[in-house]
């Protein structure tokens, strides 16, 4: 058996329904659209969410709160997660992505102070909290502020 002798299973490759190609085809005349009405016309049908003139769900439900479209999406990393780096390593957004600690950078990466670190690291991130700064410097590391 080789690839040239393979065939699709019976019934898996169905022919396309060709509508509007004469009465003898069984799909002529109205082309399977029925007699009249909105959906029988060209360009007929309704937009998504249309409920036949009834007040739509999106307008019936109450709106609450406020959505700030200008908020910054800051990705956070904790000090305890940095133990995957060897001593004296440079930790920046590219290194965090490479190690799989973050998936995207968003509008910046901030280092927070949860966890412990024993070896010195060089941190080059957009923001560092005070607690994280104390722990990094206590371990002998250095912080180079980028942002």
List keywords for this structure.
alpha/beta
What's the SSE blueprint?
Layout: H1 57-60, E1 74-78, E2 90-91, H2 93-99, E3 108-112, E4 122-123, E5 127-128, H3 130-138, E6 142-143
Parallel strand pairs: 1-3, 2-4, 3-5, 4-6
Describe the protein in words.
There is one protein chain. The protein is of the alpha/beta class. It has two domains: 19-65, no CATH class; 74-143, Ribosomal Protein L15, Chain: K, domain 2, CATH 3.100.10. Helices cover 14% and strands 12% of the residues. The chain has helices spanning 57-60, 93-99, 130-138; strands at residues 74-78, 90-91, 108-112, 122-123, 127-128, 142-143. A three-stranded parallel β-sheet has the order 1-3-5. Strands 2-4-6 form a three-stranded parallel β-sheet. The termini are far apart.
Strand content: 5-15%
Mean pLDDT: 92
Low-confidence stretches: none
What's the SSE pattern? Answer: HEEHEEEHE
DSSP summary, beta strand count: 6
Query: How far is the first residue's CA from the last residue's CA?
Result: 62 Å
The level 1 CATH classification of the largest domain is: Alpha Beta
CATH topology of the largest domain, anyone?
Answer: Ribosomal Protein L15, Chain: K, domain 2
Q: What's the main sheet like?
A: 3 strands, parallel
Shape: elongated
Strand order of the largest sheet: 1-3-5
CATH architecture of the largest domain: Ribosomal Protein L15, Chain: K, domain 2
Radius of gyration: 31 Å
Question: What count of domains describes the coordinates?
Answer: 2
Main structural class: alpha/beta
Tally of contiguous helical segments = 3
Task: State the helicity in percent bands.
Answer: 10-25%
